[in-house]
Design brief:
The chain is mainly α. It has one domain. It contains six helices and two strands. Strands 1-2 form a two-stranded antiparallel sheet. Helix 4 packs across helix 5. It starts with 9 loop residues before the first helix and ends in a 9-residue tail after the last helix. The structure holds zinc ion (ZN). Zinc ion binds next to strand 2 and helix 3.
Length: 176
Amino acid sequence: MPFRLSSFDDAGREIASHKGNPANNRGRKEENRDVTDRALRYRAHANAPPGPRICGLCGSTRNIDIGHINGHEEDNSAANKLYMCRSCNVRCGNTLRRAGLGRLTQQYNPAPEGAPNLGAWVNAVLSIKGDSGGNMPVAEAVDVIRATPPSKRSSFAREIWAIRRRRGTDRSAVPF
Ligand SMILES: [Zn+2]
């Protein structure tokens, strides 16, 4: 299942949208969830992040979709959307889930500011992807990424893309 940063909140959403509705019609339930997923995806694409379709987390230009930084697909604010490649999207989802984040009840503290430079951005990125190079708590990384203006994220993505291009595809030479 590609582009599922928050597949783990399906259950929460399903439960929420079927309150008071006896779980007696599984077919209808699945259908409703499909409609909801489609609607959420449509809304995400209706207001795409600015800049080229480059993964903001690794600079890749392949399999790019719009990811939801905090894991909430229903949160389509500009702060929460970022171009992500499929691989980073999945890894973020896994990290958020391990950290107990991305659920509908999760509250976030507003971050005072976004990443001021590429180094800070990469640290947040590595942290949200669960890479050993990152040293931030996942919730903090989510806040920093969300607080970074979309235009700035886009320029970080381009920088990362350029660095990757210079260094080739040697994964050991590229820290993200
Ligand atoms: Zn990526």
